[in-house]
Specification:
2 domains, five-stranded mixed beta sheet, flavin adenine dinucleotide binding, FAD/NAD(P)-binding domain-containing protein, 9 helices, alpha/beta, flavoprotein, FAD/NAD(P)-binding domain, single chain, N,N-dimethylaniline monooxygenase activity
Length: 396
């Protein structure tokens, strides 16, 4: 929790050091947004969560920066409402919960599960880790003392980026580079699991690396080899008042259950955004369509931060988000300087008819994608074309 507090304090310091203190409004919930064509403005319906009063406000431009994984949800296992112990989603962590000396179950081995498990293992009496799918675990970067020198860290970053851009061939199924990567990862994982080598085949998947976003998971594999951890691949059948029953009939009683089971990631906004009689949620069904992940056709003066298709299959998300924000800043500067009333992308500007790589038949952020690692043409949803990340950065 000390890291969380440090991040919170950093945010507060940044907030207090800028003029944002006079413009930010907290405890406000957006109920809906409607485009007024005559005035060329967005009408936002807002609820004050402190007094429950509702009101409308008008804006020339709306930027949605509501995040990608903030709509967490608990799994819908039978009997989950009957469980009497401590039940939480990892994205809705209770700061007052002390796992020390308790029996704990963690469901899920995605990015969140890989972070939660090693931290709980250190203090829990026993930890049951339920993993439905196998996954690749990448190597971890050690935080070197030398990184405190800016020049050393800058050189490290440049070298790392160079290696990243040179490894595009590893994204293709069946290439020698991808096979070599799979071999290296398997050796690395075997070394980290040497205390319990029987776990290797339970964890290593049958799909190639890069089909899902790679997760280093520092300490995760090591935690699984400890005596107070049970790694469980048997599917969950139901919850009981005291724990979890798997499909083999075994009930495991625990004091607490932490669900690292993902979030609602269909990318559609949690409130209606309507322009010209069309709701954005309907326009993005079955799949969202955007230009560079920052704007969508038929919805003027509306831009997104970390919107659909804004991030590639790998790479640093903060850098990609900064690129989007820079693009939006340049766009708004042009709008202001040239007195542009409305702006909206044309649909043909969104299409990329070139080399595209899909990710995996395994679930990626909860969404099933067919044909793992194959090359497709004219794939519109969440594309990853040759040089796309660089192109995204250059044009913004």
């Amino acid at each position: 929790m000390h890291k969380e507090k440090k991040l919170e304090n950093t945010g507060r310091e940044l907030h207090e050091s800028t003029t944002c203190t006079t413009t930010l409004k907290f405890n406000r919930k957006i109920i809906g947004a409607v485009w007024n064509e005559n005035d060329a403005q967005w009408n936002l319906s807002v609820e004050n969560l402190e007094n429950r009063k509702k009101f409308d406000e008008q804006f020339d431009v709306v930027i949605t920066a509501i995040g990608r994984f903030n709509a967490w949800k608990l799994p819908d296992y039978p009997g989950i409402g009957d469980y009497k112990g401590h039940l939480r989603h990892s994205s809705n962590w209770d700061p007052n919960f002390d796992p020390t000396g308790k029996t704990v179950a963690v469901i899920g081995n995605g990015a969140s599960g890989l972070q939660v498990v090693p931290n709980l293992q250190k203090v829990a009496k026993h930890l049951d880790h339920y993993a439905r799918s196998k996954t690749w675990i990448a190597g971890s970067l050690v935080l070197l003392k030398s990184f405190e020198d800016p020049d050393t860290y800058h050189k490290f970053r440049k070298d790392l980026e160079g290696k990243f851009f040179q490894r595009f061939s590893t994204l293709f199924k069946g290439t020698e580079e991808n096979k070599k990567l799979e071999e290296d990862f398997r050796k690395l994982m075997a070394e980290r699991l040497k205390k319990k080598p029987e776990l290797l085949d339970e964890i290593v998947p049958d799909f190639a690396p890069n089909c899902r976003r790679l997760t280093p998971g520092p300490g995760y594999l090591e935690a699984l080899t400890e005596d107070n951890v049970s790694f469980i691949r048997t599917p969950i059948e139901k919850f009981t008042e005291q724990g979890i029953v798997t499909t083999d009939g075994v009930e495991r009683k625990v004091d607490a259950i932490i669900c690292s089971t993902g979030a609602n990631i269909d990318m559609r906004p949690p409130f209606p955004i309507t322009a010209f009689g069309q709701d954005l949620r309907d326009a993005w069904s079955p799949d969202p369509l955007t230009y560079l992940g920052v704007a969508s056709p038929s919805f003027p003066n509306l831009v997104f931060v970390s919107g659909p298709n804004a991030h590639g299959t790998s790479g640093t998300v903060p850098n990609q988000t900064e690129t989007q924000i820079t693009y939006i800043a340049k766009l708004l500067r042009k709008v202001s300087q040239q007195s542009i009333k409305t702006f909206v992308p044309q649909k043909q500007q969104q299409m990329i008819s070139s080399l595209i790589v899909t990710r995996s038949s395994q679930e990626r952020y909860g969404q099933a994608i067919a044909n793992p690692g194959e090359i497709l043409v004219d794939q519109e949803e969440e594309s990853m074309a040759t040089g796309l990340e660089v192109h995204h950065m250059l044009i913004s």
